[in-house]
Amino acid sequence: MMKLEGWKDAWVIFKKDVCSDRFYLIWNVMIMVYFGGMFSTMLYSVTKADEAFHPLADCLMLVLMPMIGFYFSRRSFSYLKEDSYTQMLWYYRTLPIPVKTIMKSRYIQLLAATLFNGIIFFGTIFVIFWIGELETSLSPVQYISFALTWIGYALLMNGLYIHMELLNRGRIYFWLSCVLMLSKVVVSVVITLFHGNLLKYTIDISARYALLSPLMWGSLLIGALGAYWMGFHTMRKLNKRDLI
């Protein structure tokens, strides 16, 4: 299990990465604001029972929601061409930096990105609804419940993305990501075929129970435990990975 030691060094690695990629953080803000504006339209349509947007809304939330767990950097933009994640691991191994410390720094990055991007993304949606005086079935507290429900899903998916990112070459990671994305599209299509709407369901549960929502707490618990388990599993395999 991940113990407490090494968190200081992991924090140093995280701060170094963020400071070296300050320019890319601007892209983070711009992309999250764009996604927030786009999803505000989807959310409004779903709350108004506009069924034409239901399949697209589910698909976009399932595919793009995990992006709040990433922050854009030179490494993330060049992983396919330069296999930047493998190069990073090789560099840390030569210093040497323990695998535990690398994993801890990656999970600090995940939590920081989720907090930063989540506030921008869901904050943008809330501001658009407030400025536009758009009617919604969610109060601010209920909206927080809705946001946390989807953040739990994002944590679970990011645990899987980190697993693929650190254990595979850039090209393999790309194709695995494409397969995972396609599987989400298939899930959204299946939900639609059975006349369901995942986004509307999460809205209804959040509106009914607010911060006592069993779906929200279940999502956060499963997301956190899933991300932790994937991190532990990734760390064990990372010790044996051949980086040459």
TrEMBL record:
The species this protein was found in: Paenibacillus motobuensis
Protein name: ABC transporter permease
Record-annotated membrane-spanning stretches: 23-46, 52-72, 110-131, 143-161, 173-194, 214-232
Taxonomic superkingdom: Bacteria
UniProt KW keywords: Membrane, Transmembrane, Transmembrane helix
Record carries keyword Transmembrane: yes
Lyase recorded as keyword: no
